[in-house]
Structures are given as structure tokens and as C-alpha cells.
Amino acid sequence: MKNNLYGFASLALLASLAFFSSGCAKDQSVVYRPSPQIMPSHIRKLAIRPFVNKTQQFGLEDKLTISVNNRFLTDGTYKITAIEEADGILQGEILRYIHIPVAYDSNLVATQYKLDVVVRISFVDKTTNEILWEEPNLVGAMAYPVSSLPGGMTEEQVRAIIWERLSKDILKRTISGFGAVTGESQRKIAPKVPDNSNPPTPTQP
Q1: Rg (CA), the chain
Q2: Confidence of residue 182 (pLDDT cuts 50, 70, 90)
Q3: What's the angle, vertex CA 59, arms to CA 144 and CA 177, rounded to 5?
Q4: Cα dihedral: 123, 129, 132, 135 (round 10)
Q5: Which CATH number covers residue 65?
Q6: Which domain holds residue 152?
Q7: What pLDDT does 91 receive?
Q8: Is residue 78 part of a domain?
Q9: Cα 141 to Cα 159: distance, rounded to the nearest angstrom
Q10: In whole angstroms, what is the distance from residue 121 CA to residue 134 CA?
Q11: Backbone angle region of 59, left / alpha / beta, with phi > 0 → left and psi within -120 to 50 → alpha
């Protein structure tokens, strides 16, 4: 009799454990994980406004605009159209163009340069005329040996590579949303405020 009671108790315990486990599995299988909203669903056609060049270097804006436009056309996620027909507008500015030597030979002749291009991009919802997002300091950078050395490059060749990198990052930021690319942080040093809590004692004449 005792053996039968122990058998029934064991079966009841196993049944309850199985029910509890299935309940937990069921609860875990229906966890709600909404996908991030990258762009409003009504935005299907984009226009790319020509970039504005705020540097002293001539002609940068045309090459970057062409590169970005070609990147979006190749990707095909959004239809690229004229501003009048677009749902959203991608626009940007070239803020800085820094080309400096970073290595020298024994005669102090530059053997390696570094090129940094910083751009600001933003996306405008044309239906509301609001800026949906902005990347204020997107950086394209590359260090390279001078063209007279093996494997060297010209400044123009390096520019073309940077345009490709920037256009790829701009597409990625548009398609994948915040955090898809990283830019240069804006760190500002607060001006030192003089401490006037203990003003100096004027000297006696």
C-alpha cells in the first residue's frame, strides 16, 4: 500500500513540474520585443540636397554629394527623387578638412600624411518640416604614405576613399538608425570663472 502511495505522489509531483515548466516556456515564448522604429513608415522617397562646403578647400561638396547619391541608388532601400517629390530630405555640411604630415624621413621631408574630413548630416521629414535626426560630427579619416613611396597615394586618391567611407556611414545611419555610426565627440572646456569670493585687500597708499 505504501509503495502505491509513494508511486502516486511521485507521479503527481512529476505532473506538476511538467505543467510548471510548460507554463514558463509558454510565457517566455510570447515575450514582446518591438523592433526599433528607424524612420516613419510614410517616408519612402528621399531627396539628397547638395552638400554645403564650409571649408577653404574647393570642390569637395560635389564629390561627396555624388558619392552619397550613388550609394543610396545602389542600396535601393529608398527611392531617390527630386526635393519636390520626396517624403524626406537628407542634407549635410562639410565642416572641416584637415590635411597634415604625420611622419618624416631623416631629412625632415614628409613621408606620411593624414586626412580628416568632418561632416554634419541631418534628415528632415518634409511632411512636418522637422529634423528627425542629426549626426553633428561624422568623421572620415585616413593616414597614407606619399605617392613617391611604395604603396603610396595622392591626396586626390585618398579623398575618393574617404567619400566612399562617409557615404557608406551616411547610408548606414539612415537605414539602421542611432548608434549605427560613431562621430567625433563634442568636448568643450568650460571657461574658467574668476573666484571673487575672496577679493584681494587693496594696498594702502
Answers
A1: 30
A2: low
A3: 75
A4: 40
A5: 3.30.160.150
A6: 45-176
A7: 97
A8: yes
A9: 9
A10: 6
A11: left
